[in-house]
């Protein structure tokens, strides 16, 4: 799979589902970080359209316990990669999606300002599917070709103690092998090269 990101931050090859939950990045702020998340709605269940409903402010608060709280949130990610590898884009990569919350990366707060958020349909408790990596790796390469990316981090790394995703099943070694020029969790482990 080959993906490209145009000058507006739109990924050619992604299904577009515009989210209202975004705004402009601060003036002069470049995309330098990708944040990997996981999501499943209802929790632990895959398929369905509740993720799209959440990111477009259309989730039914009565559809599942806990959805009443979710219905009050205004959140988004730039991309979601479904279990079958299907790629959905909610926010152009050049805009600021609302995915990171209170966050800090290498001493920089407000990670939404300088990051792209990618949600993998999954949870902390099951491995991600092969087709998801088959989409994720070309997407990361396309983002690296368009923006001055420096690193890929998990939500747990930018919001430690508050978030746990993408969880222990995410294959950091696979991502690092495909994009060794970017700092990843794997590249930061003892005995591995760092940038």
Task: Describe how the helices and strands are arranged.
Layout: E1 4-5, E2 11-12, E3 15-16, E4 22-23, E5 33-39, H1 50-55, H2 67-70, E6 79-81, E7 87-89, E8 96-97, E9 104-105, E10 108-109, E11 115-121, H3 130-146, E12 151-154, H4 155-158, H5 172-178
Parallel strand pairs: 3-7, 5-11, 5-12, 6-11
Antiparallel strand pairs: 1-2, 4-8, 6-7, 9-10
Protein name: 1,6-anhydro-N-acetylmuramyl-L-alanine amidase AmpD
InterPro entries: Amidase/PGRP_sf, Amidase_domain, NAMLAA_amidase_2
Enzyme class: hydrolase
Describe the structure.
This protein starts with a strand and ends in a 17-residue tail after the last helix. The chain is globular and about 45 Å long. With 195 residues, it is α/β, with parallel strands linked by helices. The strands form 4 sheets. Strands 3-7-6-11-5-12 form a 6-stranded mixed β-sheet. A two-stranded antiparallel sheet has the order 1-2. It has a two-stranded antiparallel ribbon with strand order 4-8. It contains 5 helices and 12 strands. 19% of the residues lie in helices and 19% in strands. The protein has helices at residues 50-55, 67-70, 130-146, 155-158, 172-178, and strands spanning 4-5, 11-12, 15-16, 22-23, 33-39, 79-81, 87-89, 96-97, 104-105, 108-109, 115-121, 151-154. It has a single domain (10-188), classed as 3-Layer(aba) Sandwich (Lysozyme-like), CATH 3.40.80.10. Strand 1 (4-5) and strand 2 form a beta hairpin.
């Amino acid at each position: 799979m080959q993906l490209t990101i145009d000058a507006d931050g739109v990924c050619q090859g992604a299904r577009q589902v515009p989210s209202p939950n975004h705004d402009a990045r601060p003036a002069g702020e470049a995309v330098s970080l990708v944040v990997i998340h996981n999501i499943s709605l209802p929790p632990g269940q895959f398929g369905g359209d509740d993720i799209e409903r959440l990111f477009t402010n259309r989730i039914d608060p009565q559809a599942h316990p806990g959805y009443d709280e979710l219905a009050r949130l205004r959140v988004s990610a730039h991309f979601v990669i479904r279990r079958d590898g299907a790629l959905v884009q909610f926010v152009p990569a050049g805009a600021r999606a609302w995915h990171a919350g209170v966050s800090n990366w290498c001493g920089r707060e407000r990670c939404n300002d300088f990051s792209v958020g990618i949600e993998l349909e999954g949870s902390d408790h099951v491995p991600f599917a092969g087709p998801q990596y088959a989409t994720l790796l070309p997407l990361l390469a396309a983002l690296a070709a368009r923006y001055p990316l420096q690193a890929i981090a998990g939500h747990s790394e930018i919001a430690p103690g508050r978030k746990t995703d993408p969880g222990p099943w995410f294959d950091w070694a696979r991502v690092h092998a495909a994009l060794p020029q970017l700092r990843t969790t794997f590249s930061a482990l003892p005995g591995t090269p760092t940038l």
